Amino acid sequence: MAMTAVARETVFALRRQIAKIEGTLPERLQAPAAATPDADAKTDVTPNTDLTIVRRGIAAALPDAYLPTGVERLDAALSGGLPKAALSEIHGTQTRDAGAVAGFALSLTSLILKQAQGLPVLWIGTTEIFREAGFPYARGLHASFGIQPEQLLFSEAPKLVDALWVAEEAARMTALAAVILEIRGNPQRLDLTATRRLHARAQGAGRPVFLLRQAAEPEPTAAPVRLIVASAPAVPRDTIAGPLAGSIGHPAFTLTIGKSRTALPGQFTLEWNPDERAFDERAGDDRRGEERGRTKNPVPLVSLSGGGTDPAAASGAVLAFPAVGSPAAVSPTARDQPSRPQRATHLGPRRAG
User: How many other C-beta atoms can be found within 10 angstroms of the C-beta atom of residue 51?
Assistant: First the structure.
């Protein structure tokens, strides 16, 4: 029995050493109860109180190691939620997904500020990304996410190397509730070494660092979790009488788990409730698309070119202006003016005498 306990403790010690050498997993957990020696063991072995890195099926996570999203299936897939003391990637595959990525990051920030009230959040980006994607709307921060405008700080850096330096310095600060770094594309400087530095500083400070990647391809990083976010069509608002036709419901996101060391790939459709400031999952019959009356744009779409294989349809009657050539289209002043053939004679100089 004693040899079994010692061997088990040796295995866990080796796992801890391997995890420290890798330095890639953020969640730190207590050694499980099964790792302690038996009570009747003759060898006096002190239970190891050191922290070990979580692996699926090895140990149970500490209650405060994750940020739960509130969506049961997603939290179960992520083994409790997003890691708090870690670097997490949030990807947008196209530039037009920048708004969805930013909205999802602000939703996570709202959940974080519920636990870290009073602490600010630092949003770091380059001049290029802020010019392309813009800044969050100050008035909408509190209305949609419960974030006071003074709680969200921005740092605009002229170059990526400056943004990375600011992010590394901010990631080690415990005076911030979270750090958001927004990068466009796949720059060479944002390599595995740079993400390892960000991840290590997030672990040391016990604060999350969200890496927003706009129009980027997946590549190796030290982040244990990568989420791919895109906008999802909103559904009509629910009322007592049923869905309200023509209305627009809560903002929705299509979330795909692109990489996770504790979860399998999966896709979820989430809605952000700005009143309760919480996520809801849209699943099964709740995915009301065309069959459930998805809110449609009443404006007809017009193709870009009229000489292609799919020319634009002829426009209908214009209500604001009369048709060209009609009597109503000619103003009273224009009726008194000479016609084009007469204009040269009319404007010519008069002869004297």
Answer: 15
Dihedral of alpha carbons 19, 25, 28, 31, sign: negative
Query: How many CB atoms sit inside 10 A of residue 65's CB?
Result: 20
Q: What is the pLDDT of residues 234-278, one digit of tens each?
A: 888 888 888 888 888 899 999 999 988 776 778 999 999 999 999
> 6 vs 35, 37, 161, 188, CA distance in Å?
9, 7, 49, 47
Q: What string of H, E and C letters represents the secondary structure of 188-247?
A: CCCCHHHHHHHHHHHHHHCCCEEEEEECCCCCCCCCCEEEEEEEECCCCCEECCEECCCC
- Reference 281, options 255, 263, 260, 262; nearest CA is 255
Dist CA 67 CA 138 (whole Å): 25
Crossing angle of helices 160-171/192-205, nearest 10°?
20
What are residue 19's phi and psi, to 5 degrees? Answer: -65, -40
**CB under 8 Å, gap of 24 or more: what pairs does 231-238 form?**
231/97, 231/99, 231/100, 232/269, 232/270, 232/282, 233/289, 233/294, 233/295, 234/295, 235/282, 235/286, 235/288, 235/292, 235/293, 235/294, 235/295, 236/288, 236/293, 236/294, 236/295
Q: Are 216 and 188 in contact, with CB atoms under 8 Å apart?
A: no
Number of H helices, E strands in the chain: 9, 15
pLDDT at 95: 86
- Ranges of H-type helices in the chain: 2-22, 72-77, 98-115, 127-133, 138-145, 160-171, 192-205, 332-335, 340-347
- On the question of pLDDT at 159 being above 60, the answer is yes
Residue of 196, 208, 187 lying closest to 129 (CA atoms): 187
Instruction: Say how far apart CA 65 and CA 42 lie, in whole Å.
Output: 35
Which sign, positive or negative, has the C-alpha torsion 101, 279, 256, 225? positive
Residue 8 has pLDDT above 50, yes or no: yes
Please give the structure tokens belonging to residue 270: 């989430």
pLDDT digits over 196-219, tens only?
A: 999 999 999 999 999 999 998 889
